[in-house]
Fold this sequence. Notes:
By secondary structure, the protein is an alpha/beta fold.
Amino acid sequence: MVAAREALERLRDGNRRFASNARGPGALVSHARRAELAMGQEPFAIILGCSDSRVPAEIVFDQGLGDLFVIRVAGNIVAPSQVGSVEFAAARFGTRLVVVLGHSQCGAVLATLEELRRPTENQSRNLRAIVDRVRPAVEGLLATGVRHDAGALVQEAVRANIRASVQQLRHGSPLLEQLIQEDGLLVVGAEYSLESGVVEFFDGVAAGA
Length: 209
């Protein structure tokens, strides 16, 4: 089992390689590796990320087959199926790092801000379910001074949505709470920059860690 802090450093190192266009050999999949993984898996990190086609976790973190347990949903929201998926990997495989990976200019966050400003009639109930998950994290921002700066508003909303998902995972599951308290499970937030390719870890990561 890979400890949470070691797993975090692996992700940081992999993202540095990706952002500098220097991918490592681990990203290549050999026949031997495929055969090895057919017998079982031991992912060292769980990534709850957005479904955006520009943010594939394995590529962004320069990891290979079997390294990451990836859950993707628009807006990196947390609903029961996402919690259950995280629980499954943490309990079954002993994975001790969970990363909620949001990204700049997130479409689900932008759609939520638009909906809060100009509610849509007859919106698909399935799309509304995503907006309603994002809404509590971002609606308070519209009452602050940041609402006058469109760029800053989106940036703050993306961060707020990531933090909300982190908190829901930390405190919305008795199993995950137990693993956090007793077995070293770490749940952190991170934002991927579409512009630079860099992932910044900011929620749950101590200064200098």
